[in-house]
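can u do me a favor
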């Protein structure tokens, strides 16, 4: 069914060059407007790809955003937020514990010594890429009497510096995961190459979807691969054309970040605005 998507969507550009044009959201109205804009673009991308907009979840990413503005986003309707760094999000968990229905997705690399925090406070973890972390998380989750939705992160850009499993290692990794019953595996996650060339970005998304389609045939019982978390502010429309079910969007909702992206993941030499 998706075979013609690439042709249909071939003209969609990245928006990395929009960086300076993402204004800082400072009121509830600003957040409503930005969320409306992103939802409209999601719907348009779905229409180009012949997909149901309800099949794509928007995960707003609030890293670097301070508590006061996160509360405005909450007022504008955000109930699920993505954060990259444990040190940062654990402060926010404490500060916003009063927002009982606000859930958090950890989308960045995890060190085993922080597994306890994720097991206690996170609703989802999208960056699983080692058995050590799987083991630590599972043990902490069992101690908490909880289960956690997880995504396996795959490095589709081939950049040695990026986190995630090599695509060729992913099948063997998935075969180990039934040993960790508190991890509910939902799918795969990736970061595309940060490039202004849409064809190179799209290639990363195509790779993840093809890998998922192939692994789904052989995945062990209980290992779900329905979800594809791919696409961010600069490239989420391309990701949707290629099958994303979760898009992680920060700057297009909250406004451009001052912190360089290289703080969260290493940038490519041609990354332009990333540095
Ligand atoms: C920050 C981040 C995003 C969102 O990036 P934006 O450019 O703000 O949309 C997506 N995924 C991960 C893993 C991130 O760290």
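np, heres the sequence
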């Amino acid at each position: 069914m998706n075979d013609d998507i690439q042709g249909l969507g071939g003209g969609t550009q990245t928006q990395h060059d929009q960086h300076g044009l993402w204004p800082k959201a400072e009121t509830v109205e600003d957040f409503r407007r930005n969320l409306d804009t992103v939802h409209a673009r999601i719907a348009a991308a779905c229409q180009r790809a012949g997909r149901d907009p309800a099949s794509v979840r928007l995960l707003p990413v609030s890293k670097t955003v301070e508590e006061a503005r996160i509360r405005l986003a909450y007022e504008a309707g955000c109930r699920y937020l993505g954060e990259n760094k444990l040190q940062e999000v654990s402060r926010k968990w404490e500060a916003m514990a009063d927002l009982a229905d606000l859930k958090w997705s950890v989308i960045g690399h995890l060190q085993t010594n922080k597994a306890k925090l994720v097991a206690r406070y996170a609703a989802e973890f999208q960056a699983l890429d080692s058995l050590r972390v799987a083991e630590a998380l599972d043990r902490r989750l069992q101690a908490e009497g909880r289960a956690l939705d997880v995504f396996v992160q795959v490095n589709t850009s081939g950049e040695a510096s990026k986190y995630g499993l090599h695509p060729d290692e992913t099948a063997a990794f998935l075969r180990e995961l039934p040993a960790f019953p508190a991890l509910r595996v939902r799918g795969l996650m990736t970061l595309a190459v940060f490039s202004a060339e849409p064809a190179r970005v799209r290639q990363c998304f195509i790779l993840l979807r093809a890998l998922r389609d192939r692994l789904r045939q052989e995945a062990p019982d209980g290992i779900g691969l329905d979800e594809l978390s791919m696409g961010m502010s600069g490239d989420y429309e391309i990701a949707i054309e290629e099958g994303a079910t979760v898009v992680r969007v920060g700057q297009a909702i909250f406004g451009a970040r001052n912190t360089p992206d290289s703080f969260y993941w290493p940038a490519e030499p041609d990354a332009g605005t990333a540095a």
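Residues 1-9, 269-275 have pLDDT under 50 and may be disordered. hope that helps!!
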